[in-house]
Amino acid sequence: MPREYQFPFELRHLIYFREVARRLHFRKAAEALAIAQPALSRQIAQLEAALGVRLLNRSSRRVELTAAGTAFVQRIEPVLATLQRVPADMRAVAEGRVGRLRVAFTGLAMATVLPEILRGFHRNFPGIRLELNESPTSLQVAALQAGEIDCGFFHPDASTTGIETTLLLRERNGVLLPADHPLRSRKSLNLRDLEGCPFVLFPRANNPGFYDRVLAAFAASGVTPQIAEEIWPRSNGVGLVRAGVGATFACPSEARHLPDKVVFHKLSGPAPESRVVVGWRTSPAPAPALEALLQAAAAHAAR
Amino acid sequence: MPREYQFPFELRHLIYFREVARRLHFRKAAEALAIAQPALSRQIAQLEAALGVRLLNRSSRRVELTAAGTAFVQRIEPVLATLQRVPADMRAVAEGRVGRLRVAFTGLAMATVLPEILRGFHRNFPGIRLELNESPTSLQVAALQAGEIDCGFFHPDASTTGIETTLLLRERNGVLLPADHPLRSRKSLNLRDLEGCPFVLFPRANNPGFYDRVLAAFAASGVTPQIAEEIWPRSNGVGLVRAGVGATFACPSEARHLPDKVVFHKLSGPAPESRVVVGWRTSPAPAPALEALLQAAAAHAAR
DNA sequence: TCCTGCGATGCCCCGAGAGTATCAATTTCC
DNA sequence: GGAAATTGATACTCTCGGGGCATCGCAGGA
């Protein structure tokens, strides 16, 4: 089945016609196109035949556009301009100079490693548009596997078939207390000291692994945990601590940027451990923009 | 000089790639394109080589888009959609079903023949967008010769090299008077009756021919004309008559749609004659849309 | 009237795209 | 676990069509 074609013309016809329309002179247009004049004449005639429309009125002394010819030039001009930019644009995408990344993160990631990673990334790749969404670990993993996001910053406990991860943070938790809490001035705290103190936690479904490690730490301390609230996203939990509703667990890393009326204490003895990983699909191979972000994250982890 | 080309790819490449990107399957895409699979493989490889960018990650069992491939599809999709519509659109333009007409007219034309011509034309050619501008005869002729308008409705006295005209209206003028004018109830009026009555006229430069025929009519009546105001556009002149500033000349045709407080009187004896023609360039040949409008005008004149 | 310049036409060449046959690699199923 | 099947890539050939060269027909201009 030879040459069954959707379009009755080729790019060549458009370029040739644009040149003739500009110069209104076949010989000069042919010269500009670096072809011979007869070839140009034939191609234009072919284009007109294909469209079933006369685009040029030509006597042997004058060439002028018909109404259809004028309309045709106006149509193809932006098309050609777009196509002209395409190769360079594709190269930019392939090199990761421009692009789009859909990134999900947990509240903990944003409270610890993420801001600095993103800052460095954006400095080196200003052309990449980041679409950032806070999302629980479990949803992030599902979104990754479904191809809805390009990478996620989350807790590593979930099962992660088809997902590769790099550990970015691993810290024993301390606790956040309201600034007027009775224990605020204690040098050393352990979970037993906090017996009876209400805690603010996230819903277990968001990140069962960490949730269970919290419970395990309580159990190891011989303390029955008292869960005052389950709340999401994480930043709201800090707000509740500040409001005096209770305590919550936190990493030393986030202690640097706390609102006032909230204080951070290390824990001695049993304490849960927080981890943050960045995760991405192994297949398809990471796009260049993603590669760049993953490198930025890895570089941050190495410090 | 064979194949010196501005674009490293052809429409074919775009269409083929779109199909592969849709199906992510070379064999099925080839079938849909009615070509053999090896041809498709080669064309895609060629496209990638031309762009210097990998658009697809393919194992022997799975095909998937790279970031550049995704971006490429997004770029070419609208381009192909546009080009697909082009042939039909061009035919529509060539047949005068769609298009654009730049039309100039005098106040007199709009007050007499033009509304009906345009109404009939628009009913038959709803796809033609009309750009209407009121403009004095002298400027219309210049704009026509410069190709700035497609046709004009004006007074035929100007010299019109390279312009063809069709006469649409030819009427002896009467006068418009304020409704409370002393002569309002006179059965028959001539210019001598209006001696001393101030007249509102347009600037002579707008249409010297008619202006001089007005003066000739006054002279033939032995009356010295008294020009109260020179004003443009014409509709403002009627406003001044209504305001009692003076009288003005008008055609019987326009007497049907006068505002209140203005009355029309025929003139006996010497009176100027108004004519309206439609004029257009003889070269280039009128576009189909213009042809249609000219026919509508001629049909109106024939009644 | 002849001359000049322009677009169209005739003829030939060759490059590139398409088809057929086949290969190599990976998955599937018995 | 091995054979069959599926899929994309490669080798080779053919042919279509775009391009060059030579030339024609026609219209203005000196």
Helix/strand-derived class of chain A? alpha/beta
Shape of chain A: rod-shaped
Please name the two chains that share the biggest interface, counting residues whose Cβ lies under 8 Å from a Cβ on the partner chain: A-B, 48 and 49 residues
CATH class of the largest domain in chain A: Alpha Beta
The helix/strand series of chain A, from N terminus to C terminus, equals HHHEEHEHHEHEEEEHEHEEEH
Oligomer: homodimer
CATH topology annotation of the largest domain in chain A? D-Maltodextrin-Binding Protein, domain 2
The CATH architecture name of the largest domain in chain A reads: 3-Layer(aba) Sandwich
Roughly how many Å is the radius of gyration of chain A? 32 Å
Question: What number is the mean pLDDT of chain A?
Answer: 89
Low-confidence stretches of chain A: none
The CATH superfamily of the largest domain in chain A is Periplasmic binding protein-like II
Total strands of chain A: 12
Question: What does this entry look like structurally?
Answer:
The structure is a homodimer of 303-residue chains. Chain A has helices spanning 11-23, 26-33, 37-51, 67-94, 107-111, 114-124, 137-145, 208-220, 234-242, 288-302; strands at 56-58, 63-65, 99-105, 128-134, 151-154, 163-172, 174-178, 198-201, 226-230, 248-250, 262-265, 273-281. Chain A has three domains: 11-94, Winged helix-like DNA-binding domain superfamily/Winged helix DNA-binding domain (Arc Repressor Mutant, subunit A), CATH 1.10.10; 99-169 and 276-302, D-Maltodextrin-Binding Protein, domain 2; 174-271, D-Maltodextrin-Binding Protein, domain 2. With 303 residues, the first copy, chain A, is an alpha/beta fold. In chain A, helix 1 crosses helix 3 and helix 2 packs across helix 3 (37-51). In chain A, strand 1 and strand 2 (63-65) form a beta hairpin. Chain A is 42% helix and 21% strand. The model of chain A has no long low-confidence stretch (mean pLDDT 89). At the A-B interface, helix 1, helix 4 and helix 10 of A face helix 1, helix 4 and helix 10 of B. Chain A binds a DNA duplex (30 and 30 nucleotides) through helix 3.
